[in-house]
């Protein structure tokens, strides 16, 4: 069994980007600039955005955090999005989800300039990804593909079961895994809450990618020997015995499933760090594109 160490790989990617940025500075060029828009004070979002800002600083990117109050109106947020679209200094930006309930997420994501959409959520970018065109790939699926690549996990012809059909992870990773290339060329089954006989499917799977958000959903009796398991789930489970009052776990019953797996990602330290690394990689790509256009 080999652990797919997202923390280690994400650090390698950050080091590679740091070298590129240092060379840009040497040549007197503009360094990549990532902005993040955060509305309200959701704990997980604050942690995630803070981590992105720290990562930018570490690798030499410019970063801007726009933290707006919970009561910000939809129009005010859309106005901020337009400002970012028109700001030549900003190469890419993200609007941190979830947004407060009074704001239409779809409307906001549609307003983001696809050329600055480093999250890869805009329909233009999703469509290009589905058609095998060069684009921004959503950071979490991009990170999973990079893990497969760097650990030389063989995906060709393998039966991959993706659990969860979100637009952010489930659907894009199911498309990427079925595309020509390496990693890719897998036979993909996309399972979800209405799937019947899920256990039968997971027992046939060579690769399981779980993005469900249900703690320890995938048990050892649901997987076969030698399976590769990617755990995208991350849930805070309340626990008064812990100092923080909670612990973080994934979709997979890790301790038991790892006994049968050939490769597995831990939670935390697996897919999470890769998501941030690939967001930085997308920002670097955005800056390269903007430079080639000007």
UniProtKB/TrEMBL annotation:
NADP(+) binds at residues 164-166, 234. Pathway: One-carbon metabolism; tetrahydrofolate interconversion. It holds the Pfam family THF_DHG_CYH. Signal peptide: none annotated. SUPFAM superfamilies: Aminoacid dehydrogenase-like, N-terminal domain, NAD(P)-binding Rossmann-fold domains. Residues 4-119 form the Tetrahydrofolate dehydrogenase/cyclohydrolase catalytic domain. It comes from the Bacteria. Homodimer. Catalyzes the oxidation of 5,10-methylenetetrahydrofolate to 5,10-methenyltetrahydrofolate and then the hydrolysis of 5,10-methenyltetrahydrofolate to 10-formyltetrahydrofolate. NCBIfam families: PRK14186.1 (NF010783). HAMAP family: THF_DHG_CYH. PANTHER family: C-1-TETRAHYDROFOLATE SYNTHASE, CYTOPLASMIC (PTHR48099:SF5), C-1-TETRAHYDROFOLATE SYNTHASE, CYTOPLASMIC-RELATED (PTHR48099). This is Bifunctional protein FolD.
């Amino acid at each position: 069994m080999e652990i797919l160490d997202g923390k280690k790989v994400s650090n390698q990617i950050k080091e590679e980007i740091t070298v590129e940025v240092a060379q840009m500075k040497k040549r007197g060029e503009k360094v990549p600039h990532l902005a993040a828009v955060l509305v309200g004070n959701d704990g997980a979002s604050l942690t995630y955005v803070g981590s992105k800002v720290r990562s930018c600083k570490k690798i030499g990117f410019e970063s801007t955090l726009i933290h707006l109050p919970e009561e910000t109106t939809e129009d005010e947020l859309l106005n901020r999005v337009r400002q970012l679209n028109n700001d030549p200094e900003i190469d890419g930006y993200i609007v941190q989800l979830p947004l407060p309930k009074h704001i239409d997420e779809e409307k906001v994501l549609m307003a983001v300039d696809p050329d600055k959409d480093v999250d890869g959520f805009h329909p233009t970018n999703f469509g290009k990804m589905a058609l095998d065109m060069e684009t921004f790939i959503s950071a979490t699926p991009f990170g999973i593909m990079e893990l497969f690549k760097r650990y030389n996990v063989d995906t060709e012809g393998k039966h991959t079961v993706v659990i969860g059909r979100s637009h952010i992870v489930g659907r894009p990773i199911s498309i990427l895994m079925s595309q020509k290339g390496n990693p890719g060329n897998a036979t993909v089954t996309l399972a979800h809450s209405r799937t019947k006989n899920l256990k039968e499917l997971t027992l046939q799977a060579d690769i399981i990618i779980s993005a469900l958000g249900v703690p320890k959903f995938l048990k050892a009796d649901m997987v076969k020997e030698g399976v590769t398991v990617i755990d995208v789930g991350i849930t805070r489970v309340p626990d008064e015995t812990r100092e923080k009052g909670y612990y973080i776990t994934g979709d997979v019953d890790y301790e038991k499933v790892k006994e049968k797996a050939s490769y597995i990602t831990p939670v935390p330290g697996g897919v999470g760090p890769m998501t941030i690394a690939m967001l930085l990689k997308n920002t670097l790509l955005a800056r390269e594109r903007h430079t080639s256009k000007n």
